[in-house]
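Self-study notes.
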Amino acid sequence: MRNHLITAAFFTEGLHDARPDHNVKPNYDVLIETWGKGCIELVDSLVIYVPLTITLCEAAAIACDGNYPGVFDYEVSSSFGKWFGEYILEHGDEPSPENAQTWLVFHITAFFTQYMTKEEARDVKTAIDEAFALAKSNPTAPMPS
């Protein structure tokens, strides 16, 4: 449970870093206004992805024998929150679950395989893909739809 809370906190930290373009200072009030559905609702729409993120991270960590190439929540969770917020600023609404899930699978894979050979990376990618497929097929798993 603690990992879930930390990941949710870093998602939200990244959300606060979202900006409409890279020449503009981040402004959370503009994000909330663009979203137009309330702050709690925004955070709720974001943190629904925490269980999937933890599932994929754990699968990759096992495939890597527990060796993390960096700090996952700094490099992936916070970045996801920022991407999520910038998507809203650009499109006026949250990304589809498919877009968000694709982002997470890609970036979690990239994080864990960044210093690996193609052969080493293949095992990690397989572990992440299998964990994702299992999460999607599990009717009791909280997957955004």
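Second protein, same conventions, sequence then structure:
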Amino acid sequence: MKHDEIVNKILSGDILSEYNHANIITRKDNRDFMQFDCSGFVAWYIGTNGYLRALAEIRGYLRATDFLKINRFYCQDFERIYNHPENLRYWKIHKNIFDMHPDDILIIVYGDGNGHMMIVDKIISRSGNDIELRIVDSTRLLHKNDTRSQSGIGYGDIKITFDNNGILYDPQNPQRTPTYVNAYIARPIK
């Protein structure tokens, strides 16, 4: 199921969603209830859309290097993978953040090791050192022009700026200030 189908079903009320570290799909009120955090949603999305080799490749690499946690990857784990593209046959790694395209996975890692993972829906604008993106993710902190009224899976707009200090990630939420981060872009391939 493509991300636009998922979000449309959530918006129509056919599927329920909430941000949750359980990373499961259950039933609630006779509907699917998707309970995912950001990396759990992206991992589910990759597997559901036929990129099983890409998912297995990441898990295998993390298992071999003793970094695998509960059979899935986290944002900070992707840093380890990103720095060894020679080990990846089922991923296209973009080294330049401005090379991202719709359906790429954008991984943000903060200075404390936490992060956020999302799927690029579309490039809204590119100007100078700024990129505005429409993304789909699972989050509890909504973005600009968000389709959600509460936590869960949906669309929102973010902004990324590249300057002399690095990559500035702006989640476009008044509760979060723009922050310098490490950012990684990758696309699973079959």
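Instructor comment on the second fold: The CA atoms of residues 76 and 114 lie 7 Å apart.
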